[in-house]
Amino acid sequence: MATVSVYNIEGKEVGTIDLNDAVFGVEVNEHLVHMAVVNQLANKRQGTQKAKTRSEVSGGGRKPWRQKGTGHARQGSTRAPQWTGGGVVFAPVPRDYSFKMNKKEKRAALKSALSSRVEEKKFIVLDEMNFDEIKTKNFKKVLDNLNVNKALVVLEDNNKNAAMSARNLPDVKTARTNTINVYDILKYNTVIATKAVVAAIEEVYA
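RE: above sequence
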């Protein structure tokens, strides 16, 4: 069972916490992690790109010149792909890029991502993160105390002041226990979570 330090918002170590190996100590499955990232990015794609094929562009109804005797190569339409204003060969059409992953695969990928962060010592646990007011400067000060710049901060559902305080920081993203995903865990250098969040994650995924 992995043991990590617990810090307060001043950046001082105030204790330790044992992480459940069923969530934070699994063997990293790189294939599932990669699949989860591709899945998330593919599901975000709009897939609305469109270009016209030669059957859809206007004009080109009649043969530009007769088949033989002109010295030109034979042509059947001025809207063939080799003509200016012609259609596009194998033109893209609107499509859905999304695909599904099994629930077990998603859970395994998330556990692998969390475990890799713990293994790399990029998982920081705070005793709590409560602010009396919404102030970006206060949130930035906490990150400076922890010596962190680009971070995914997982907060409790009712911690609105902390979530609102982080909104203007470009390299920080806040998430809740039920919204964490593999892509964000890997995108940000460090994952920061409170003790309450760690307990909630272990309860859901253990």
